Batch of 4 targets.
Target 1
Amino acid sequence: MIRIAIVEDEQLYADQLAEYMDRFMKETGEQIRLTFFRDGEDIAVSYKPEYDIILMDIQMQFMDGMTAAEKIRALDQKVIIMFITNMMQYAIRGYQVDALDYIVKPVSYFSFAQKLQRAINRLPKDDVHAVTVNSAAGVYRIIAEDIYYIESEGHNLIFHTKGGDYRERGKMQDREEELAPVGFFRSNKGYLVNLDAVDGVQDGCCLVHGQKLLIARARKNEFLTALAQHMG
């Protein structure tokens, strides 16, 4: 199921996009769940990373699409954003929020279908695991392969990732149960390591993204076995 949000304040265009989406599903067999918003403010305020694709009008009354996209992108690096506009001068600003494409008004079905298919082709495959991190700053969706390791600090977990560090209150055991099936292993009580990110083992530590993470003596043999099996 592909989750798509349409942010459009003109009912005529919203109805047209809904009609196009229905036709696209019938022609391609794709299963799509649609959610409609009437303004950028409606989706950006209290945004949760639960969409795969967002089709966003640029000109709206309370919060324009570009501002809404900037707020969304700060919380969700993975969602695909496409703008609906008749003002192509916004194209350069679109790169700042990593917009995939533009759908130009008036919207033709042929152009819509082509651009939507391109966006769907960019979606992660089913074997990619996404992790939801609930931090004080907001809710973030992170692809598991982008996580180097998770560190336990008191009642907090720190996610060290390609996109920076994220902190949430949580239990390491819960994350271990979630991520062990996709190649994560506890090197000791305080670290849950992405085995793909291990550059080597030295002096009783695993080397991950320039950091030496201690391997507990009791876990050493299991960790090395898991690492060898993971590397094939």
Note: The mean pLDDT is 89.
Target 2
Amino acid sequence: MTNSNIPKRYWSDLKKRLTEEGSELYENIVRLKLKVQDGKLRETDTLDTKGILRLIESIPSPKAEPFKLWLANLGSERIDEVFDPEITVNRAVEYYRKRGYDDKWIKARLTGIVDRFKLTDVWKESGITNSFEYGILTNEIYKEWSGMKANEYKTYKGLRKESLRDNMTDIEVALTDLGEIASA
């Protein structure tokens, strides 16, 4: 992306420049042992998704420009959604349609999102405040209808980062919603 003849040197100089500019990006670099071209494990600088996107923003290169434009478009779209939240809902509906879900499933999924908010509001009113506690209660709901915790069910479905609910059948969505409604 940088057209550098010596990428290692470019990366070293970029990290130095980022540190001098006070960028938080350098502090987010984690070194992990990864397999490299020679097949050996070597300590390698890594970043999470947000860090990678921030890194791309800092690269002065024509090859980085398409990514920068894409990021700018995403930012603009999200700002538009702040002023008109229906845009977000429309985008979600279109996303689900493109993935092949029918309108009945989409309606159940969106209703499930609202029902989940109702449930977490009840939990908040009961003094439950952190995500760990939400996780315990959510796992109990999943175990009741599936026999598995949420993360076990995700593994069963072969999912990694994807939304579990977005990969459920009509019946699975209904059972999850029913469990949450009953819990509220």
Note: The radius of gyration is 22 Å.
Target 3
Amino acid sequence: MSLKSSTKTDVNTTELVISIDAEKFENAVEREYQRQKKSIQIKGFRKGHVSRKMAERTFGESVFYEGAINSLIGSEIESAVAGLALALVDRPSVEVTSIDKETGVELKAICITKPDIEISDYKGMKASKAVKEVTDADIDRQIEMIRKKNARIVSVDDRPAQIGDEVTIDFEGFFGDEAFEGGKGEDHPLVLGSGQFIPGFEDQIVGHSIGDEFDVNVTFPADYQMEEYAGKDATFKTKLKAISYEELPEINDDLVKDATEFDTVEEYRADIKTKLEEASLKQADADFETQLLNALIEKVDSPIPNCMFEQRIDTIVRTFEQQLSQQGMDIKLYFQYTGMNMEDFRESYREKAVNEVKLRLALEKITEIEKIEVSEEEINTGLTEVAAANRVDVETIKRFIPMDDYVMDLKVQKVIDLIKETAVTEDTPVEETSNEENAE
């Protein structure tokens, strides 16, 4: 390979002109002939016994050129890119500009390179850090959870259904006199007031008793996920088959002893408070970090190749498809229910992808500016848990993950820590929390 020229034709774009000498090209053509030999068939010759000269005479001298050049392109461009220390972010666009048996081949490769981000003033950024106060109401919400977990289901047969009851119903939906697909259910459990069904449906069950058969008249919302139903009036022929409700136990020391590791309500409430306070501190720190990283993204205004955003969207789509697969659904069915298509879906994630790419480029640039390094000990420490979980040693794990990316992840985390450590925390009033996370 001979690199004839390297020209920066645009921001993040470099044009390479590469020549492949005649001998290397001839060897590649011969290899391509040998690869195709067994499948070449010409009348009068046994399959697999056609000479190269005969094949070229019959099909043209260039019959093996495309395969030969394709076999060389990858290594030739890789060698040129490595020699110039270019960091490519996409597959190069390659054009064969000349082919000659006597002089060889000349290629032109358009390379899209990683942008050199300009970033400054990443130390001393300002962000607020508000730790939300844990109130008695927050603790009471957690206490309510343990009551619900130990609730007793009581069947009702002496009164009509009311909000808060769980009912069992049969139903079938009609547009006019015609039943519609997906509108039928048998022995369906429904908590009245939960909002599980179309607005107005649950309210019309209230007041009915077991055994009642009645019509529920509703209108599908204008933004209903199945467009063919949106805005339509429907009638659901409904039968109420059972009514029950949750009877919550009194919160006392006996319940706490039975349901938790504590002996008294007082001890349990103290533990809940401690855990909620820890959660509030973690959330405040996470919010603080998010503010700083968002501010860092705003500092990035260097040109970035669009292909990097598209690649990030590709990753988001693949991850989403994997999540759907785990739920027994594919993306085509998801689009059918949501009324979206792939173009709309990708566009909905563009802003997220742009921000993620900008942030990663900024953080990686700071690792260069700050000359961030990670030790072998730090690398091994991070891999030990992964190795233990997979019952292999660390060296084996290293062979199965992209180590360059892993090491860069460790460096990036150090940069995030640096940004947080040097940030200026703005005074923010303590806020009350409505945190409903489970503290157990």
Note: Residues 432-440 have pLDDT under 50 and may be disordered.
Target 4
Amino acid sequence: MEINRKECPDFFLDYILYITVTKSLSARTVQEYYLDIRLFLKYLRMMHESQFADVNDLRQIPIKDMSVEMLENVQLQDLYNYLYYVTEERENHDRARGRKVSALRSFFRYLCYHQNVISHDPTERLELPSPKKSLPKYLTLEESKKLLQSVNSTYPERDYCILTLFLNCGIRLSELVGLNMRDINFQESKIRVLGKGNKERMVYLNEACMKALQAYLEVRESPDNSDEKAVFLSKHHTRISKRRVQQIVENALVQAELDGQGYSTHKLRHTAATLMYQYGDVDALTLKEVLGHASTSTTEIYTHLSNQILKDATDSSPLAHFEKRDPKKK
């Protein structure tokens, strides 16, 4: 769904332009913020303007003629009422509500501190319970080996290389798709990837990655009409799409009999991080740099321990074999 500029008031369009250009947010995040703020503006009109009080479908409420002065009167309670609305009426869970809070904070800070069109920021005291952090789903070491061993496709070298980079480097889908030939440093065995927020980082390649990459490049077709820059090409010799990579992973999971268990392209990133932590003696700070996270708080979800490690830790207690003596026994 594209941004409908014709339905947006000027102050809203200015904000969208601001987060797109100045904040360098991804197209997906901009789209989500647009939808979240648009919904909030429609909700605001429904709650505070009598002509929209009986409207059941917020899509019917226009926002083009909204004045920024209306946002001057927004109070903290309005924001909580909105979050209650999306929870009850739209069944938004923790993550969706958290994103809406982020969008609202960004929007009102822009209006208050960057444009100075409202006198106060109602989101300053806006709180939301932290979302539950569930353990990330990942493949075990044996399952990872099985997945790599089972690759059987029309372009086996390419598909094997893609899976190898995912499982060894923990790069994102967008980072893999965006790889260009000039990003590969064969001499130092590393690649340059463009992560979130247009932040570049260097990812080092181990022996398995280098072998897989070299094997793929030996058979990589590069006719005159191909995308010479892209590392991974489609059968049409254009840069491979995100959806095609997802299909490659899905097909490989089926061949390895690992389908239907909730695994996906992003779960391979979880797997890489988890295996590094469990078998490579890698700490959270190092993982942060490898994965390209902005802070270690994000990385900490990967540093969970396997059940066996937890069991071994419990068994190592000096009281693990203690037995209460029966006073009746001598």
Note: The two ends are 80 Å apart (CA to CA).
